[in-house]
Design a protein that fits this description.
This protein is mainly β. It has one domain (2-139). The chain is built from 1 helix and 9 strands, in the order ββββαβββββ. Strands 1, 2, 3, 4, 5, 6, 7, 8 and 9 form a 9-stranded antiparallel beta sheet that branches. It is globular.
């Protein structure tokens, strides 16, 4: 598979690598460049009690999907690479007051696997974080996390 998409307003997604359906086996190289968070907002803010109002996602890595054995079992998923979220802006979900923003958040050496479920990050770099006046309480309590529903 080779896919090269331009995503408005100025983002780009490049995907390449083999895809086999039976048995399921996917091994893709993925590159994102300044993809606006607006279209993927529901996935990014799932479980967070805040509204993402701006930001651009970039990164590169390897995505692997494989189903071995039981066809009814979910496939094994993994991602290994680097991810960056630039120019993030967020607001309160029930009032729209600005909350937290930053110039850049970079996760280097990110590894996600579904079997066994695991996340590891080699390095985290946060550039120019901004906590707005209306949310000084963040220094006293974390961002409220809602339980994920399956």
């Amino acid at each position: 598979m080779d896919l090269d998409l331009q995503v408005p307003p100025g983002g780009r997604i490049d995907v390449s690598g083999p895809v086999r359906l039976r048995p399921l086996r996917v091994d893709l190289s993925v590159k994102l460049r300044r993809v606006a968070v607006a279209p993927v907002r529901p996935y990014l803010q799932r479980g967070l009690d805040l509204l993402l109002t701006g930001g651009n996602l970039s990164g590169s890595g390897r995505v692997q999907v494989e189903r071995s054995g039981d066809a009814k079992a979910p496939p094994d998923l993994s991602f290994h690479g680097d991810v960056q979220l630039d120019d993030l802006a967020s607001a309160e979900p029930r009032g729209g007051a600005p909350l937290v923003a930053w110039r850049s958040l970079r996760l280097d050496g990110l590894s996600l696997t579904s079997a066994p479920p695991a996340v590891s990050i080699g390095q985290i770099l946060l550039v120019q974080p901004i906590v707005l006046e209306s949310v000084r309480y963040f220094s006293q309590c974390p961002i409220p996390i809602k339980p994920l529903s399956h």
